[in-house]
Amino acid sequence: MNLRTGRRRTLLLSAAVASAVVAASIAVIGTAEAATTLGASAAQSGRYFGAAIAAGRLGDSTYTRLLTTEFNSVTPENEMKWDATEPQQGRFTYTNGDRILNQGLSNGSKVRGHALLWHAQQPGWAQSLSGTALRNAAINHVTQVATHYKGKIYAWDVVNEAFADGGSGGRRDSNLQRTGNDWIEAAFRAARAADPAAKLCYNDYNTDGINAKSTGIYNMVRDFKSRGVPIDCVGLQSHLGTGLDSTYQANIQRFADLGVDVQITELDVAQGGNQANVYAGVTRACLAVARCTGITVWGIRDTDSWRGGENPLLFDGSGNKKAAYTSVLNALNAAGPTTPTSPPTSPPTSPPTSPPTTACSATVSLNSWNGGYVATVRVNAGSAAVNGWTVTVTLPGGSAVTGLWSATSSSTSGTVAFRNVAYNGQIPSSGSTEFGFQGTGSGPTGSPTCAAG
Ligand code: G2I
Q1: Top mutation candidate among 53, 77, 83 for ligand 1, by most atoms within 8 Å of CB
Q2: 238: closest CA among 213, 262, 269?
């Protein structure tokens, strides 16, 4: 080979390698983008991954870089609240709310509106009103703000945090509540009239599993659905500590079964040994429920969080990705492009080794308070897959079932047979599923029985 030929070959080879590299990097960008940011990974299954943001931080370049690359939904942390949008009665200011809106829309993101009515962060003038004057002012506020943002908001938190903590399952006392128990539905109807395209959500905290508070909300949503009050979604804030409630997913599922979407609206998790696992658990639970449509974290970097010193977010103060970030991204990508369905059951083999009557078992865990209880029932398959199940529970005298999720029931008192619903009838071998019910009086004391088939 003479020098000239050799050089030409080298040049040709380099050109070929270079074009191959270009082609490869195009291919990598094409697929890697869908797998390497939170928003794009969530979008693979039709969901969003959002962040609460503050107008005052939009001048921070690290903040806006993370915001625009990682997230495809935004929620104003404070800028659309009552004190921000109507500081004086009838005088509306949208400057900062609009900054958040435009930041989101210009980035192709969804915008969640937060929050039209809440007992906190009310302007002083509203705090001093009561009765009809407050009711009228509140409904006017909903109408005006929802009209200003009409057609631009994906979902509104119409009412925020109206239920009490603790075991009552009832409403929180507030000036709004004292205008009459129907203030929530009045707000939802006003919001629907003002912006028919926005999904209308009820949003609350300490609803991170099946408990008395989330059951109170569940009963309200069920009532709204049965009476045609316009409600489309429930926001589970999910300000979490170091662990995840074992009924977190079942709680999402029972709301979805009422025919509303569920959104994880304000997720943050105390930094501890489990932070990454808790984040992954929340992500997997949402992905496992088709109507859980997206997740929002309540801030971007630890230093942006309202939970000062707890480091509860996905990026550290310098904007570096934390282990929790990676666990969320991996969980989003593990779900793949479609919503997961029940695991396939193996075709029947002959002869079956265990008789059908022993193919399942059930255990009950009770959360009781004076005068009521929530029972969570775990249904376990044996060594064979179960295709349909009936769990029978005996209630003590005076006890009646008042609410039920993820099952149907034969009666509301005495000996009650609970039957699977469509999505949870099939349990893979050694697998399990859950349903639950709420009742008055005291809960079941004996062991439930389970029959498969
Ligand atoms: O408290 C955490 C969240 C619970 N769910 C409803 C959310 O709306 C709530 O968000 C927080 C904001 O993250 C804080 O930023 O709501 C707080 C108010 O209840 C916000 O704090 C307020 C401070 O109290 C004010 O002093 C401050 O002027 O933020 C304001 C704006 O920075």
Answers
A1: 77
A2: 269
Whether residue 80 contacts residue 123, with contact meaning beta carbons closer than 8 Å, is answered with no
Please measure the distance between the N-terminal and C-terminal CA atoms of the chain and give it in whole angstroms. Answer: 79
CA atoms of 366 and 376, how far apart (whole Å): 6
Judge if pTM exceeds 0.70. yes
| Residue 319 to residue 324: CA distance in whole angstroms | 13
Q: How far is the CA of 230 from the centre of ligand 1 (A)?
A: 27
pLDDT 10s digits, 72-118: 999 999 999 999 999 999 999 999 999 999 999 999 999 999 999 99
| Residue 161 falls in the annotated catalytic set | yes
Atom 24 of ligand 1: nearest residue by CA position: 121
pLDDT digit string, tens, across residues 187-218:
999 999 999 999 999 999 999 999 999 999 99
Backbone angles phi, psi at 391, to 5 degrees: -110, 130
Q: Which amino acid is at 206?
A: N
Catalytic residue among 77, 79, 86, 161: 161
Ligand 1: which residue has its CA nearest to atom 28? 78
Question: Could you tell me the two tokens for 246?
Answer: 């074992």
**263, 115 Cβ separation under 8 angstroms:** no
- Angle subtended at Cα 89 by Cα 86 and Cα 95, rounded to the nearest 5 degrees: 25
Residue 251 has pLDDT above 90, yes or no: yes
